[in-house]
Design a protein that fits this description.
Helix 8 packs parallel to helix 12, helix 13 packs parallel to helix 20 and helix 15 packs parallel to helix 20. It is globular, with a radius of gyration of 26 Å. The N and C termini lie far apart (about 50 Å). It is about 45% helix and about 10% strand. Strand 1 and strand 2 form a beta hairpin. The chain is an alpha/beta fold and about 550 residues long. The strands form three sheets. The protein has a six-stranded mixed β-sheet, with helices on both faces. It binds 6-O-phosphono-beta-D-fructofuranose. The site of 6-O-phosphono-beta-D-fructofuranose has 14 residues, from loops. 6-O-phosphono-beta-D-fructofuranose binds next to loops.
């Protein structure tokens, strides 16, 4: 079952340990150690992590931590926070942590402290948000803004969309937020159909301002606005941009006074803390946005300063590596028991899979280990009635991250107790499983006859020993959400370091982007050169035929 992941010497001790301890049984571990929960849990930045339901013991933990030392994890953490150009293939710094540390000691980049500029950009956002909320910023016919539409994709969509959805309960009541990402016109038209152009504000979010989906949606939205806003239609009152490229923004026709600049040293999937958080601030207000930054900052400080043995992102990353590289797990399920976090798995997919879904290491060699797992998930309890069957009895191990808030905010307290009970029950069931003997005892009680009882008992047996983490927050607030997001950002970074890859580029998305340009020309053009494989040619021909295009 287990791949042989090891070649760098730092992994040798982990592999030796795996040979001895790979078959650890959690039931036994819990039985033998009443302190297992306190031994394998910790609290940081308002987040509690229980990682005791993993197939690890003290030695597992020790060898993994030692591997982290040998991979110079401390050096990489330091280089990231100091702003070295650790994104080697793009020759960029990685400084999203600076965005939540505006009041920290000077951070010198190219001979200049960047924090005053970080603060001033945040103040710009604050002024704009205040103007919109206070009614000083009005549409071209003098009406107040009621609807905000964020048009962006990938990192310019998933993070802000997830946060706005999660913190919906804290949203300013006069503003409704919408997100459009897909180039599929149904995404945009569904949103536009709900809007009044005179009271709508479009935030065009794109670091490059060249991403085709975003630019196509932005142009269609602008046209929709111009067609409907009336004689005084003024794009400048209804379109603002979030981007690192002012020339492209200007070329699109957005007034540079309405540009909120992002940074070259912040990648898309790490950008919700930058001006890309404008839609968040417009939804929950500036104080809420600043609390989000504060929460993340708390996790940053913990990550930067805490020994690995007590360091939550490091632990989450190392346990993930144990599951992925030594226990052979190909996927990771994120299961929030909080409906407000329903978009968290989708957000995490980009963060983890775009960062660490790579097979070439920092030195241009093939990686010696399997890298990012396939990240997926969905909210509990819904998933229990859909895909949990596979998690409990499927042929592949699926490690799980449960996420739950101890206090609910729905006002329906009984619901919350049931929700939490379900979360804890699932984690316990995955760990304990059910032996055939236990199943038989149950069946005897239900008076099944002998033969069918044996048969049924096999179906009702759960192997158990399936790993999970339970991540617990007291309440879902801007601050705790900020800390939760930063926890995963750093976990992903640590895993990248351990696998020896650059987590901050994404060359793998380029090929498809290139091919689409040629295909579109063929779809729209007269000629049909038949220059692809027979499948692609056949599909193209079918499309053109059905649409009377040839
Ligand atoms: O294509 C992938 C990607 O580059 C992501 O990394 C990024 O978050 C997304 O596209 C959007 O990019 P932009 O903000 O430049 O439109």
């Amino acid at each position: 079952m287990t791949p042989d992941p090891v070649s760098p010497s730092c992994w040798k001790a982990v592999q030796d340990h795996y040979r001895e301890a790979g078959q650890l049984d959690m039931r036994e571990l819990f039985h033998n150690d009443p302190n297992r929960f306190s031994r394998f849990s910790l609290e940081a930045a308002g987040i509690f992590l229980d990682f005791s339901k993993n197939r690890i013991n003290e030695d597992t933990f020790r060898v993994l931590v030692e591997a982290a030392r040998q991979q110079d994890l401390a050096g990489w953490v330091d280089r990231m926070f100091r702003g070295e150009k650790i994104n080697l293939t793009e020759n960029r710094r990685v400084l999203h942590t600076a965005l939540r540390n505006q009041h920290g000691p000077p951070l010198i980049v190219d001979g200049k402290d960047i924090l005053p500029a970080v603060r001033s950009k945040l103040e710009n956002i604050g002024r704009f948000v205040e103007a919109v909320h206070g009614g000083d910023w009005r549409g071209c016919t003098g009406k107040r803004v009621k609807d905000i539409v964020n048009i962006g994709i990938g990192g310019s969509d998933l993070g802000p969309r997830m946060v706005v959805d999660a913190l919906h309960g804290y949203a300013v009541s006069s503003i409704k937020s919408h997100f459009v990402a897909n180039v599929d016109g149904t995404d945009l038209s569904r949103v536009l159909s709900q809007l009044d152009p005179q009271t709508s504000l479009f935030v065009i979010a794109s670091k490059t301002f060249q991403t085709p989906e975003t630019m196509i949606n932005a142009r269609s939205a602008r046209q929709w606005f111009l067609d409907r806003a009336g004689p005084g239609a003024n794009v400048a009152r209804h379109f603002v941009a979030v981007s690192a490229d002012s020339a492209e923004v200007q070329a699109f026709g957005i007034d540079l006074a309405n540009l909120f600049e992002t940074w070259d040293w912040v990648g898309g999937r790490y950008s919700l803390w930058s001006a890309n958080g404008l839609s968040i601030a417009l939804s929950i207000g500036m104080a809420g946005f600043e609390d989000l930054l504060k929460g993340a900052r708390g996790m940053d400080e913990h990550f930067r300063t805490t020994p690995f043995e007590k360091n939550m992102p490091v632990i989450l990353a190392l346990v993930g590596i144990w599951n992925r590289n030594f226990l052979g797990a190909q996927t990771l399920a994120t299961l929030p028991y909080d409906h407000r976090l329903q978009l968290f798995p989708a957000y995490l997919q980009q963060l983890d899979m775009e960062s660490n879904g790579k097979t070439i290491d920092r030195h241009g060699r093939n990686t010696s280990m399997q890298t990012a797992p396939i990240v997926w998930g969905g909210v509990g309890t819904n998933g229990q009635h859909a895909f949990y069957q596979l998690i409990h009895q499927g042929s592949d191990p699926v490690p799980v991250d449960f996420i739950v808030a101890l206090q609910g905010d729905s006002g329906l307290e009984m619901h919350h107790r049931v929700l939490v009970a379900n979360c804890f029950a699932q984690a316990e069931a995955l760990m304990r499983g059910k032996t055939t003997d236990e199943a038989l005892v149950e069946l005897t009680a239900s008076a099944e006859d002998g033969e069918s009882m044996q048969d049924l008992a096999r179906h009702k047996t759960f192997a158990g020993n399936r790993p999970s983490n339970t991540i617990v927050i007291d309440r879902l607030t801007s601050k705790s959400l900020g800390a939760l997001i930063a926890l995963y950002e750093h976990k992903v970074f640590v895993q990248g370091v351990m696998w020896g890859i650059n987590s901050f580029d994404q060359w793998g998305v380029e090929l498809g982007k290139k091919l689409v340009t040629g295909l579109l020309e063929e779809i729209e053009g007269e000629s049909f050169p038949n220059r692809h494989d027979s499948s692609t040619n056949g599909l193209l021909a079918r499309f053109k035929d059905r649409n009377g295009m040839r």
